[in-house]
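Contributing new records

If you add data, match the layout below exactly. Sequence lines come first and carry their own label; structure lines follow with theirs. Keep one chain per record. Anything else will be rejected by the validation script.
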Amino acid sequence: MEPTSMMRVNAHSSSYGGHGSTPQDRQHQRRQKKLALIEAVEHGHLEASKHALKVLMNFDQSLSADAQFVRLSKALDAGSVYLAQQIVREIKAKLINATPLATHTAHAAHSVHTPHPLRPHLPDGTHLVDTQA
């Protein structure tokens, strides 16, 4: 009897650990890496900040073309923690402003019980009159 060796082919060889990665998983991983970077910079940990930035840039190489992340990298390389903290504040503001309004509205709708259906936002000077009262 001949010894037979079985070879198993991994269908997801390009993904991490052989497991498929959905776009939501990648987005979550990117968010976690950004949060780790922000936390390290805000706490003034220079070496941890450099490491977190390197991990993030390796994960999402498109950030190497982002002007804010390039500035952050240069500030960390120069050892300027204060400047890095200022840049992180700008990045956080950009992230907060980039969050879709629907996310904020959905979160607010779930956190506060409203007896009436949500009404659309009206421009200033426009009033809504409830004729059912």
